[in-house]
Amino acid sequence: VQLQASGGGLVQAGGSLRLSCQASGRTVGNYGMGWFRQTPGKGREVVAGIKWSSGWTFYGDSVKGRFTISRGDAKNTVYLQMNGLKPEDTAVYYCAYDSAGWARQEARNVDFWGQGTLVTVSS
To answer: Burial level of 74, CB count in 10 A (0-12/13-18/19+)?
Structure first.
């Protein structure tokens, strides 16, 4: 599975951005797609995920109520709508694919990663 992410950029605090990720290759079963983020010197933090078959979603505590993950009309495409952005949301965001459908929402269980897209929120 290959993941192509896009949509990062520079935005002022309080603004919005939308990230996109499209998976190509053989996606089967109860897989999940989602997003993690990482800042220098820290591990990858869960942002949001969606189980493709059911649409079940989960969010990291720091983004609940501000970010929304959704499935796109195009096959195997997910979006992350980020509203009310804060400077602490600044990070490299990575699209993720979990063949187990997010049975555990942890970076170590991710099977495939996208290339990362930088989100910078200025104060």
So the answer is: exposed
CA distance 83 to 17: 7
For residues 71 and 12, the answer to whether their CB atoms sit within 8 Å is no
Residue 53 tokens read as 């078959």
pLDDT of residue 49: 97
DSSP state of 104: S
The phi and psi torsions of 87 (rounded to 5 degrees) equal -55, -35
pLDDT confidence of residue 55: 93
Q: What is the pLDDT of residue 27?
A: 79
Query: What are the tokens at 58?
Result: 């989960």
Q: In the chain, how long is the greatest CA-to-CA distance?
A: 42
Burial of residue 47 (CB within 10 Å: 0-12, 13-18, 19+) is buried
CA–CA distance, 5 with 54 (Å, rounded to integer)? 22
- What tens digit of pLDDT does each residue of 20-72 get? 999 999 877 789 999 999 999 999 999 999 999 899 999 999 999 999 999 98
